[in-house]
Amino acid sequence: MNEMSAARAAFEARLRRIGEERYHDRHPFHALLHSGGCTIDQVRAWVVNRYYYQCRIPMKDAAFMSRVEDPALRRAWRSRIEDHDGSEAREGGIARWLKLAEAVGLDPEYVASAKGVLPATRFAVDAYVRFVRDEPLLKAVASSLTELFAPKIHAERIAGLLEHYEFATSETISYFRHRLNEAPKDVQFGLTWVLDHAVTPADQDAAAAALTFKTDVLWAQLDALYSAYIAPGNIPPGAWRPGEGLAP
Hints:
The chain has helices spanning 3-22, 28-35, 40-65, 71-85, 93-103, 108-113, 119-134, 137-143, 150-164, 174-197, 201-229. Helices cover 71% and strands 0% of the residues. The protein is mostly helical. The protein has eleven helices and no strands. It has a single domain (3-229), classed as Heme Oxygenase, Chain A (Up-down Bundle), CATH 1.20.910.
């Protein structure tokens, strides 16, 4: 291995360590969810709040593409928007998430309104959209690399939900099954792009910081959820409360 290849491998290893140490699969909320320890209202709170992140992803990607001058990069990136928004030919991730909302007893229209989203969730997700819209392209792409670590948590979630919750079926949790196929394609492109473009130590530091920021965004959402609905149960004004937004 030559010096350049060794440096590239070391940088990739650095990025992967960020996920090993900081990805939100380590958060105690996920341990509860995947083991069947959440009540149905705690699952509903998660569905309400996670929807806000899901529905902002294509907006984030559209903001990113509006700044990209390279047609090849735009072509590679635009499938991410269709993965979430869908197309005339196929259903997207947002629609699949609303099926999950309906399965846990929520009114999909209420969830889609984002009225019950926790303030901290809204702040964290909006900060991520602004980050991708405003920061240099290298940092914007690097922030997407949390998808490197997503297949493991999706597999754990599929198994845990099917084992422990009556609402879980192959149809109602189809969002996660589709991400097992969609995410690897996206992340392989993004990882290669970052490795190709982060060639100086300063570039690599910036990319690593961007990925760390994104793990913080994901972690902050779960901290808010845990504080409001699990321990000590301090639901802020305006956020979803048990009994609200249920399917008619």
